[in-house]
Fold each of these.
Amino acid sequence: MTETQAKYQEVAGCLRNEIRHGGYTVGQQLPLEKELCEMYGVSRTTVKRAVDVLVAEGFVVKRRGAGTFVKALDRGIVQHLNQEKQFGGFTEYYAGYDIGTKVLHYAVVHPTEEVARLLMIEPDDFVYDISRLRLVSGKPIVVEYTQMPLKRIPELPKDVLNHSIYRYLENELGLRIQSAHRRLRAVMPTGEEKELLGIEGRMPLLEVTQTAFLADGLPFEYSISRHRGDKMVYRVVSIR
Amino acid sequence: MTETQAKYQEVAGCLRNEIRHGGYTVGQQLPLEKELCEMYGVSRTTVKRAVDVLVAEGFVVKRRGAGTFVKALDRGIVQHLNQEKQFGGFTEYYAGYDIGTKVLHYAVVHPTEEVARLLMIEPDDFVYDISRLRLVSGKPIVVEYTQMPLKRIPELPKDVLNHSIYRYLENELGLRIQSAHRRLRAVMPTGEEKELLGIEGRMPLLEVTQTAFLADGLPFEYSISRHRGDKMVYRVVSIR
DNA sequence: GAGTGGTCTAGACCACCCC
DNA sequence: GGGTGGTCTAGACCACTCG
């Protein structure tokens, strides 16, 4: 079953493929918006939206008065752009690999004041309190500390923790994850984390603190992920 | 001189202020798009664009069939959203603080093969090779290693290095910075970096590797910034 | 079923780049 | 000055949510 797509998504997809597979090469000017309208049989508004998708993904730049140009990107990087939606967290990020999970801790507790504030709940509400070690090909990669309000996730079977919580929320509970606010820092592992992650000597961790939101605008997750510094690179394309 | 703004920017600004200063509170539904059209005297397309700005900034969520809602965000976080454009680099990030710069190294060299590839130049082209220590209130915060092709930045007076290179490029050379592709990692400092950054004991660094692009789509900078882990937090809002 | 935001159109005018 | 992308409009139809 192929999803029905909006026209602008289809046009964006075509252009993306052309760029990726060399139809339009690095530094080259794209056809004018007017020409793209004719080529794809759509209005100019639709073409503009399509091209804006590629701008956001980092493939092209638009210059008023001049045209639209493929960014001068290294071929290797072109392939990686737009690969990682950075949602679905760990499971999606490492899709295709041999993923393992070890549940370290699973309880229901009251949140700290700070977490209650960030999750927009009361300190005497309850949250799931979960710690998991995630592995790729049997090797530990990241420790995740997750808190989710029972208020918003009424049910969370223990078995789910061994797989993707996000997938469960979306597929089983029908909840739609809308956005995430993240903060990244470099930290040192605790003694326990060194052991869990199999770190000998000195290795820093990339810590990602995340508040994630459902489609209704309410936060449903506060989590801290601490990744082995040698295994995690976080990519961002930022447009002016 | 107030800049002339697009209507959708103005409307977005109004809504942003309302949210920040409590006119619309957390979790609340915004007026319908049709109502906003009347309130601001603009077309629906313009309202949609305005609201889309706020979605991208992380303030609100839109739900087809339901409405637009202010995200349930902690007040402290609401204030910080959309503060940091993350361009202009260090100088803009710490605007208002007492900033210092110590130039460690300034030369013209050939790039490595990798850097040549990323900057889309030839290995026998030349690049500025700059190392700087940046300080806030006299305290060292970050070491920056920067390479820029002479091809694209024909002139770079030594004096500029003591201030903001970006500001020089924009204001003096009239170059417009369009986007940046970044990779973030956690690393340990070298012995030299420990000394430069005044680190005693174990402290990790947040490394930001950046390729930055001008408006013409050509890369003009490859840089590696290594920030004291206790001073740098990188924020991202990511939308599905 | 009523009402929401999502997509799309055709056309207009404007700001900017470049020759 | 000719041509680019940027903004804006008015109107149409659609997909989805919710009572």
Amino acid sequence: MARISDVAKHAGVSVATVSRVLAGQPGVSDAARERVLVSVKALDYHPDLAARRLRSGKTDTLGLVVADIRNPYFTEISRAIEDVAYANGMRVLLCNSDEDAEKERFYLDMLRDENVAGVILSPTLSLLSRFRACDYSFPVVLVDRCAPETEADAVVLDNIDAAQRLMRHLIERSSQRIALFYGTASATGLQRLEGYHSALAAAGLTPQTRAIRPTTTEARAALIEHLREHPLPDAVVASSGLILLGLVEALREAGLRCPDDILLAGFDDQPWTRIVTPDITVIAQPTADIGRSAIELLLARIAQPEQAMRRIVLRGELITRASTSRPIQE
Amino acid sequence: MARISDVAKHAGVSVATVSRVLAGQPGVSDAARERVLVSVKALDYHPDLAARRLRSGKTDTLGLVVADIRNPYFTEISRAIEDVAYANGMRVLLCNSDEDAEKERFYLDMLRDENVAGVILSPTLSLLSRFRACDYSFPVVLVDRCAPETEADAVVLDNIDAAQRLMRHLIERSSQRIALFYGTASATGLQRLEGYHSALAAAGLTPQTRAIRPTTTEARAALIEHLREHPLPDAVVASSGLILLGLVEALREAGLRCPDDILLAGFDDQPWTRIVTPDITVIAQPTADIGRSAIELLLARIAQPEQAMRRIVLRGELITRASTSRPIQE
DNA sequence: CTGTTAGCGCTTTCAC
DNA sequence: GTGAAAGCGCTAACAG
């Protein structure tokens, strides 16, 4: 493995000059620059990143802590983040907290040890409740989850608005008893619950909610139990794509048909929601935009540590499909 | 930020002793060890990883290059790999080649620069055709894709066998004209094609195949076109979960019903295959086992660079569902 | 059992 | 415009 001194020797210059050329700094003659470049190629020289980091005290690594790597929503966001990161010459350490505050803590500590330049984080509820950007040695951008009072850069969906629009859509279609199955693990689920409540209150309807862990199996079990213990709702709604999948399984198992027996809607426009029968009305989230915005916020904060906090709120898109197809009530 | 010398001073020992304690090395008195540990806590000391790596020449970072991060198959594998990696005190740099040989090259170079301890790779077809483990400065374990002659540690499904079993399942159910839609981007698709051919040949049936890029949209377009240009097949088969999704979309669009009009089967037991109507017969891959085996192979190779190459071949599980439900022919 | 010390490879003054 | 040299923080060889 060639080192910088080898390149210097080969090019007939000092290591300082080689370093300058590599860093693209001015103050090097064209002739010297040229010779260095040739030598780098000739020796197939690659700088030692560990040494560079030690010396410069900086890293070109970002951390990304998602709550569930198997959730396509987070995968798509990750994808967008990585594309931008690598295009900017930065690497991404992807961590999966699994909605577990302890694992989250572990990864955040690890990223601190790693001396990352910044972190994009979808916090667990427990962390979010006491989150302060200043508790970290690196800049943090929150993604997907953020409380109104949180002081941090963040990119989130307008969950309350999205949930309200989804509910109004249902209410316009004569739904009176709308059951919401929402995830308790995240601020997102809670905010969607809030939108649900306000929309139902505005229409004078009685809420009917089940708090669950946001997994497919749990959602499925919850709906089956709910159907056993309560009169049949007009409509069931999931606060996330994973929960929605569980509801579909349960309805299927119960032999209930949409939209004839019951209406169904949820969040996240995952590919399968288009191919099931019936296809499902959802709030689609602009995942690529979310990811891109998050890393742009982070890169901006790294460049300008002292700038004011920014929050980007994106709007969900209501995609109407057969699962809520029913004449609109005037 | 406290440094090792601060800890040494605080504990009244030398930096060497601190280093020994931290590395868990023997040859330190209990008293000294105790004082060091106390000081580490008191000063909230965290070793500088860059310095450690520079000095020791080793990294505790692994690379994982998957062909498509949005494919649940790879996500599940990643998940298993990360769990094992972090449990062993190693970090994972996750890279997404997107089936693009150039991106793959970029990431492999980056991982080399990063001086990773090892890499788990699902190679593009173009790389696999000329792959030699010795071309890399780090150990490599292939996952999901591997040619018979490739000299490398690898964890793969027995694709030929799995495809054959799936075909025999169809043939037993009187299918005569089985159309296969397979991905050309990977060795996996090609091996499944091979199994398809041999099973059909054994039954004296004429093959009917379409080579496509392994995406949902492409699969969908291919089947629509196929239906327009050919007589209706008895059965259609997808060589991957993403392709299968496209086929479902196309059948739906064409108004064809399974299993009455046509049988349908594929690879990858993704959650949605259970909830569509009808639910779909698939070959399930043991993704968690694949991931776990891969990293175990890698860790073993890192520990024992010279040991013989090992290949782990796992068996797919045929899960029979309604999409191929039809009386069995005697 | 413990401490001293020489670098790992690079960036960055500082002097020329 | 260029080079010499001082470390970044740590590990490990060596001496005691």
